[in-house]
Amino acid sequence: MKKLLITRSIAEPVLEQARAAFDVTLGTSAMSEEACAAALCDYDAILPTLGDAFTARAFELAGAIRCRILGNFGVGYNHIDTAAAAAHGVIVTNTPDVLTDATADIGWTLILGAARRAGEGERLVRSGQWGGFGPKSLLGTHVTGKRLGIVGMGRIGQAVARRGHFGFNMPVIYFNRSPKEVDFPARQVDTLSQLMSQADFVVVTTPGGADTTKLIDAAALAEMKPTGIFVNISRGEVVDETALIEALEQGRI
């Protein structure tokens, strides 16, 4: 029976199916480069997920590789060096489109939470410091009718934009690296600068990877309105975190 490593616990029915076909080992935490290298030698197939460091160095450390497939559990696979995998004859797969609506819903949780200051209010109540209603208490920002800007108009970007257009009557603009037609009212802008300067809410939904690392940098953030609200549901590395912290600390967004 072939050996399968599943690097993190997943749904029990799936585990039952896997155990019927493979000798399964179940991991408990994110794997280092060294652990990934060892796994490539010890298993016929691996189901990794975010945080498992299947880097170029991991493939080089492995030497003679037994594994033939990395069946990534998740849409994003920037923790896997796909070029190194291909060079060593290892197939890489992912699970696109399974989290589109869930991720869009989370994006809207963040939009509404930031605009209406829901997190602040919840913390105030739990701390016992809420003193009752006041006309100026925790005034937030209207969402309905504001301009929504989407960076990356793929499946998730479109799902976020549809919710904004149909649910909140928001004009939608978007920046995409290639021309993109969508089946609802939305306007594509030519540059990231245009989007950042025109949108009241900026939502980043691009894939991760080298092409988008620090796409949202200090220059992009400087284009935002001082009243702008920024939401990232892409990978963390898409945003220059130092630049974002500086913009927030200086009150520029």
Number of helices: 10
Q: Enumerate the strands of the largest sheet in spatial order, edge to edge or round the barrel.
A: 2-1-3-4-5
The general outline is: elongated
Biggest sheet record: 5 strands, parallel
Mean pLDDT level: 95
User: Over the alpha carbons, how many angstroms does the gyration radius reach?
Assistant: 22 Å
- How far is the N terminus from the C terminus? 57 Å
Which class do the helix and strand fractions yield? alpha/beta
| Strand and helix order | EHEHEHEHEHHEHEEHEHEH
Give the topology, please.
Layout: E1 3-6, H1 12-21, E2 23-26, H2 33-42, E3 45-47, H3 56-62, E4 69-71, H4 82-87, E5 91-93, H5 100-115, H6 118-126, E6 148-151, H7 155-168, E7 172-175, E8 187-188, H8 192-198, E9 201-204, H9 218-222, E10 229-232, H10 241-249
Parallel strand pairs: 1-2, 1-3, 3-4, 4-5, 6-7, 6-9, 7-8, 9-10
